[in-house]
């Protein structure tokens, strides 16, 4: 098998090389995470190659392939990716016009970086997150969790984590894989999103909720997959499609976005 085939095989239940994406109690990584991490360690150029293949699949011109690889090798956390786009205007223009991503407000970037550092400091002071057994909680208990201080801190933290916005398709793939979704599950999810996603940035909370709801429809109980996010709200959103708390989550998320804009 090629390295890329082996990477995908670890996440495919039809493969003899399939490994569980569930972390055992007391473990910080699942068997699949450890195997993929070792694959990257043993093959230093593999991650670069994965993104290079993706660039050619998307039809990028040769002159911008290196930029694409460099961009996706940057961490999701923080603003490194936005800074890279600002410093590479030709790639940024293609990234927006041909790959369909949203334009970035570079004028406010320095201010958002400064604000994000403060959020990160607050997040580091929070206790480690615990998975929520949603089926054992009453609606009132769920509402109390959603309205509590940790939930509000989480919303602000997500704005910092994703550079002031929502992750694009490549980020969603990496995040879901890191939190236990198989390659097949990720592809199925993205296919269900269809024209509302299609390689573009997820631009609003409705599209983010669509991701979560479609995961639920496919039987991927969101609490099992995403409970390791530092986020009661994400687990709450995924309880069931159309859950009554969904409106509260929308409101909380939108208010956080507005607060961020006012800070700018």
From TrEMBL:
Give me the ranges of the annotated region Disordered.
Answer: 15-35
Q: Give residue spans, biased composition: Basic and acidic residues.
A: 25-35
Please give the name of this protein: Uncharacterized protein
């Amino acid at each position: 098998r090629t390295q890329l085939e082996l990477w995908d095989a670890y996440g495919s239940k039809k493969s003899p090389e399939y490994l569980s994406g569930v972390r055992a109690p007391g473990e910080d990584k699942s068997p699949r995470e450890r195997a993929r991490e070792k694959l990257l360690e043993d093959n230093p150029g593999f991650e670069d190659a994965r993104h290079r293949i993706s660039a050619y699949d998307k039809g990028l011109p040769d002159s911008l392939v290196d930029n694409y690889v460099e961009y996706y090798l940057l961490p999701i956390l923080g603003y490194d990716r936005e800074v890279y786009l600002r410093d590479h205007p030709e790639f940024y223009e293609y990234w927006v016009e041909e790959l369909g991503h949203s334009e970035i407000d570079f004028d406010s970037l320095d201010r958002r970086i400064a604000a994000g550092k403060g959020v990160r400091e607050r997040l580091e002071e929070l206790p480690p997150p615990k998975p929520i057994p949603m089926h054992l909680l009453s609606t009132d208990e769920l509402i109390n969790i959603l309205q509590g201080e940790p939930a509000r801190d989480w919303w602000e933290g997500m704005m910092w984590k994703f550079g002031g916005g929502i992750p694009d398709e490549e980020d969603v793939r990496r995040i879901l894989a890191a939190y236990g979704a198989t390659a097949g599950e990720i592809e199925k999810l993205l296919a269900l999103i269809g024209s509302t996603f299609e390689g573009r940035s997820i631009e609003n909370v409705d599209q983010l909720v669509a991701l979560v709801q479609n995961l639920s429809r496919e039987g991927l109980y969101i609490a099992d997959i995403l409970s390791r996010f530092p986020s009661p709200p994400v687990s709450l959103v995924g309880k069931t499609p159309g859950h009554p708390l969904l409106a509260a989550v929308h409101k909380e998320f939108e208010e956080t976005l507005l607060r961020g804009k006012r800070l700018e």
